[in-house]
Amino acid sequence: MKMNDFLAFMKKNGRLFSDENLLVIVCNVKISGISAEKYGDFSTDTEFLSDQELNQVMQMACAQKIPFRVFNSEDAFIRFLERPSTNMKNLIVYNSAQSGTGAGRKALIPSLCNYYNIRHTGSDAYRVSLCRDKFAISSLLSRLNIRVPKSFLFHHGKFNSKLDPKLKYIAKPIYESASIGIRKSNVFYGDNPPIRYLETLEKTMHQPLIIQEFVCGYEIEVPVLAGKNSHFIFSPVVLHQFEKNLCMGDEILDYDKIYNDDYMFSSLPDNISDDEIKNTAYKVVDRLCLSGLCRVDFRLKKDDLFYVTDVSTNPHFIKHSSVNYAFKKLGLTDAQLFHTILELS
What we know:
6-stranded antiparallel sheet, 2 domains, alpha+beta, 11 helices, D-amino Acid Aminotransferase, Chain A, domain 1
């Protein structure tokens, strides 16, 4: 979909939902009492919504002018489905809940919705789980001739291949997002890998690690709206730490920075073309058959060579997010953002 067509679609009048619809928001909230998983000093609650973020989502939901309910856990939503009075045909489910651990922890609600034939946002359970496995998705994209960093697996205390002593690498838990399990110590050179640290990290996180070649340069996120007949690719959003320096260089957004929202957003510098980055984001989403709102992450070198580093099937869209930034750059509102996500369900 071209930008003019997308903007026309977003700004047209008329309601696309009826009063008979019930919007269901399933999410984990930090204040709800739902226990986040602890991995030593790391916690999965960095992916949970704060009270303020939940209020933002509820304001967006109110603007849709249809009834809605919020469930703070998967269990609460399941109990709701078990009620004889629940009319599943009229439900529209938005899910960001991800209790538990492992690659499939965000797939429970999409799977239930598929089983009961309930309209829901985002990709199916299989693709949600697939994209949570960093090593699997990196291997698959490589086979599809999409440029990714050289990647290895660290499992049971061993590398599955020999590292290049001249290259710099970064270790990431394969099933996590939001930089869970990542600190500066995760970056090292191939001639001196911190084996004991990696062994401890693997045991602490209860999962293998992906060892990726470290790409020095810009940290970029590209939001994508994947519809049944067309996709809309947003302009790349640069994540950075300092106002006057958009390039992360050798720095990373580690767990503490992500947890504290210690980063900002900008557009790519005018001297860098975004055409190939957007084309690659489209290829990733199209080849993986993703649906709804998703996001493709890149690292871009200063020589304009870029690599796909991650794929998200359900990125946050609250105010401090690249998705929200990309919408606002087009002059669109939070209500229109949420409306689009629901319309693609």
